[in-house]
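Ex. 9. Protein: Transcriptional regulator, TetR family.
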Amino acid sequence: MTTTRRGRPRSFDRDAALGRALDAFWRHGYEGTSMATLTEAMGLNPPSVYAAFGGKRELFDAVVAHYQEEKRELMASALSESGSAREAVARLLRVLADDYTDRSHPPGCLVISAAVNCSPAASEVEASLRAHREASKRAIAERIAVDHPARAEALALYVAAVVQGMSTQARDGATREQLRGLADTAMLAWPDGD
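Predicted C-alpha cells for Transcriptional regulator, TetR family:
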C-alpha cells in the first residue's frame, strides 16, 4: 500500500538547520533561547520549525542528539587509544582543551552549560543533560577501571569535575594554552604508579 505525504516537501537541509539551532542553544542556553531566536537562526518560519521538529523541547533534544554524535566519537577516540588509564585521561583533557576553545563553535560544552540555573519549568531538560553527563562519567570510569578498579569511580568524578571546570573556563575566555595547562596541572593529582 502506498501512502502519500500531505503538504509541501521540506525545502531545507535538516542537518544545517540543526547546526544553526545548536549554535543558538549553545550560546544562550535552553531557557535563554526563544523560538523567535531559533526561527531567525535557522532561517525558517515557525510553522516549518514546528512541522519538522515539534516544539522547542523536541528541537533541543534533536540538537543534543546531533551534538552528542560528534562529541561521543571525540571522547571515545581519546579514551580508546592504547596506553594506560592515566595516558587516556590526559589525552582526553588535551582533546577537550582544544575542542572547548575551537573557534568554529561557541566555547565550552553544550551539555555542560545549556541548562545551568534552569527554572523548574525546564527540570526535564536539566535532567536529560545530567543523564548525558553521567553517561560520559561512566565511560571515563570504565576506562579508568582497567588500571584502577578500586578507584575508578572517585577518579572519574574528579575527571568530570575538571572537564566541567574547563568548559566554564572556556566560556569565560580561557585560551587553549590555558586549558592545556589546566589539564596538565589536573593530572598532577593522578595516583602514583599510573
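Check your answer against this statement. Residues 25 and 190 are 35 Å apart (CA to CA).
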